[in-house]
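Supplementary Methods S3. Complex input for the NAP-bound model.
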Amino acid sequence: MLPTHLPTPELFLPESGEPALRWGIVGPGWIAGEFATALHAHSAQRVVAVGSRSQERADAFAAAHGIEHAVGSVAALVAHPLVDVVYIAAPQSEHEALGLQAIAAGKHVLIEKPIATSAAEARALVEAGRAAGVLVMEAMWSRYLPQASVLRRLLADGALGEVRSVVADHGQAIPTDPSHRLNRPDLAGGALLDLGVYPMQFAFQALGAPQSIQTIGALTGTGVDAYATVVMQHRGLGQSVVTTSMVARSHTTASIAGTEASILFGAPFYNPSSFRLTSAEHFGPVVDWSDPTPLRGFAALSWQATAFARYVGEGRLESPVHAHEETVGIIGALETARVQLGAVGAVREEVAA
Ligand SMILES: NC(=O)c1ccc[n+]([C@@H]2O[C@H](COP(=O)([O-])OP(=O)(O)OC[C@H]3O[C@@H](n4cnc5c(N)ncnc54)[C@H](OP(=O)(O)O)[C@@H]3O)[C@@H](O)[C@H]2O)c1
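Predicted complex, serialized as structure tokens:
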């Protein structure tokens, strides 16, 4: 039986008791600009400082986003006395080192996806955060969207029955220029880490960590993964297929099938979107849901920022909807897939649980 009423989304609404944190940005590139815009337009959070490897770029970013302080080094940013939390938006190759630097300065840290390039790096970050008593969170914004709270409730209530299958996909047509960061092994490029992290976290959310992982795919001329299909077995007759590509823009949908019902998210499933819940009976009923809020696209990056502030206010050291152990496991699964493809820079294999 499908539920007659879908759960009400749990929203991370601004000014619902969370502290107004003072944010410092490291890595003022493309997504950092979207993040600062979303924060200032849709949250009570404020960016007070920006740090770049160049004073000129920090100044330009600060001017574009109305940020008071601009500094020409990461060291100066993380040490800035006005900064409560550091948002790291540099390429993934730098996430571990920059995150550890911010944690050592006693700052909470929100690190862009993927939080790191290997399970060992991710573990180092979350352990350092725990030891320092600061919140460390991957900026997996999909987990903080309204639809994610509805999905969590449906899964927790057993609305799908026993979950048996996940199919999730994320492909983008990335420029083939070898200097683009996704084509560069030294910046930990490749489809799996950058794009595949979204469908991988989706599979983990529905089925937990895999028991086995098998990957097919191909490398770019620069040696990073161009595309990959990751097939995983999970406990309880669970299977998942995660596909990712940086050589083709794909449908970016995601589905979960259980013994009682299945759910299909519209594209792109990792953005504010919609879903259809379908009964497992032949020609059974369907229920449609779509995000009732006005936030679309990158404006929805603000949900995770308000969630982050709420967690800081609650004294949490990890996200309750994206636990450290799970975050490390997701990066470990991506690492395994990269090793199986022989991607340059993927050096060790994290054994799946
Ligand atoms: N949440 C999302 O939807 C989303 C979307 C896109 C990207 N991302 C993630 O955000 C991160 C940044 O992606 P992006 O596309 O915004 O990259 P980007 O435009 O290239 O910006 C990254 C910035 O990091 C700084 N940086 C620090 N060390 C660097 C290094 N060794 N090489 C190059 N730049 C370095 C640079 O600023 P300075 O030189 O001024 O210091 C650069 O502008 C990635 O981890 C990516 O996966 C997330």
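The mean pLDDT is 96. The two ends are 33 Å apart (CA to CA).
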